[in-house]
Fold each of these.
Amino acid sequence: MSITKNNGKTAQRVKIFILISCVDGKIDSAFEKISKINSVSQIQKTDGAYDLIITLEADSNEELKRTLMHEIRSIDDVKYTLTLRSSLDDEVLG
């Protein structure tokens, strides 16, 4: 299952990809909670070492960092995350 959101914005936005490992039996719960976060533009369930992959989009790296640290990693169903950024981005997310 996957969800793609169209936030209707056309301005250049910063994008990162997050691989998420969930607590056993909590993938659906994590999926539901994460899909409600405004900066999440796409979410997909996966097989393998990670349970979900999401795309975060925002106006700044700082906004992405806040979303990751305070909204995604604070979800009890999320065990750990791995952040990937596009090699085309000019700035590195700290």
Amino acid sequence: MVGVNADRLIEMLQPLGVTMKPRPIRLCGACYQESPCHRIEWQFKDVMVCDRHQLRLLTKCTNCETPFPIPADWVRGQCPHCFLPFATMAKRQKRC
């Protein structure tokens, strides 16, 4: 129906035993700069650090502190309140 192989759909789900945490929405600005899309791993309950960049995941805008909306609303990849691009936020992410 959606044109995606069943095996690929299974790969997109979280691993068995991994709990999702839908709020707050988290993201890595450095990852977003490389590829502007939300990674499901950012919402795993126990994940607080980007495994690629070793940066603490962000839960709100680094400029105005507005919490991130759901990824489906990321039309332009920026804060909906102050319009700071997610990719720019990487400069203010803390190293772990």
Amino acid sequence: MLPAWPISLVVAWRPFLDPLNLHAWWWMLLVPLSFGIAVTYRATRVATFEGFWLKAVILTVQIVLSMFLLGIASYLFIQVAVPYLMPMPG
């Protein structure tokens, strides 16, 4: 037997106007998004598809590591450099 979902809840969901509440899980979407970008980029740049998937996976790892390192760099900049450059009066 099907669950008794109110049909108005299913029909009323608008993907771009009412996004899913995945704010706590955004980091899990980084890998599929990076993989999709890597596959699309590699597909437009290769002459032959020999070693295509390996190159796409390597590019995915590079994108994820770059995002991680950029996050660390921005955190350190905000926590270390900004207070040093603009000290709070007091």
Amino acid sequence: MALESKSHTPVVGQPSVTDARETVRPATVEELSRIITEAVETKRTVLTVGGGTRLFAAGKKFDLAVDTTALTNGFRHTPADMTATVPAGMRFAEAQERLSQKGQWIPLHPPDRGDSSIGGVIAADRWGPRRHRYGTAKDWVIATTIVNGEGNIVRAGANVVKNVSGYDLNKLYIGSRGTLGIITDLSFKLSPLPAMRTTFRACFSTAGEALTTANEIHRAPLEPEALLMAKGRWTAPRAKHWWLLIELAGSEESVKAQAKTLSSLLEKSTANRWNEASQDDAAFYWRTASLGNDETAPIFATAEISFPKSYTEKLVSWLVEISPGASAKFLPFRGVAIVEVSQEMDRSLLIDEAVRIGGGIEFDGREITSPHDRWPIEPASLSIMKKLKSALDPSDIFAPGTYVGGI
């Protein structure tokens, strides 16, 4: 079955990406609204596709895949207010490039190779090492426009930095994985681009030594933009030790003063070696820390673990004990970690430990094909999430059965 051609143009060849029966690529929000209205009337299920870098279809075949990459009109940047509205189909890297021309940026750091759409980054709530200072999308998104489960174009939030009127509904769509509607544009508060950045890298024999130094850095008069503790595939190829990556950013005067303090601290630490990296080396280190190095064999899956920050030391020690050779990276002062999961590893150990410390866990990998396998710990808010899904998507057309708890 095909929707009426007057409403959209089918995209030939793309259904293999999502195994959908039909793929469409609307060029305007109004066209998208008509497509969703028809999907509701004909009871068709819909999967939203942006850059396709974090797509999870849970092994299901959908009636319609909606490719948002043509929704790139409507970019608006107001430098004086330090806000911008970005169309959902625009590549995140392109948005950052445009904003940088006025010395501003969206201070998020998703791990990708430049292909992720802005809508996909926010729908998956992706983050990277700079989460240490800047947090996640919930700290920067101020307004969202979506096409909801009735085909209506709905805007939540406002294009102002301080907005306290009513419920902040736009936060619902961050991390919703396309289950509540299709994001068409997002408004952000922005941050000035730092005048200078520099990266320090330090190697330690044990996780305990690296964490001790990380704590000393955290207590020092420093304001790192990123502070990452990593081992294995997220460090240099074939590296066996634990590394700290520290990025300082700000004015030239501030960075130079902080670099002097950090150098003194690392000199007195138990680091086997450390250095202030060149610009090219720093770019390589952070790219590897985000994506993993290409010389490492493909992995079965990764586990993203969230946990109370007070449990960082215990979780690091526990992980080293049960799987000393596993690759891992921690943002120790944000309570998040990503751990390599081999095919032989007993995933229940990770799940049980996350439950024990009151955390959460998400598995990601080609062999992870069901919501229960991906999100094995159901959140306490699941019943509320299901009510929101019913209210915003009453016909249950948006990616049904692909999210936590089978939402």
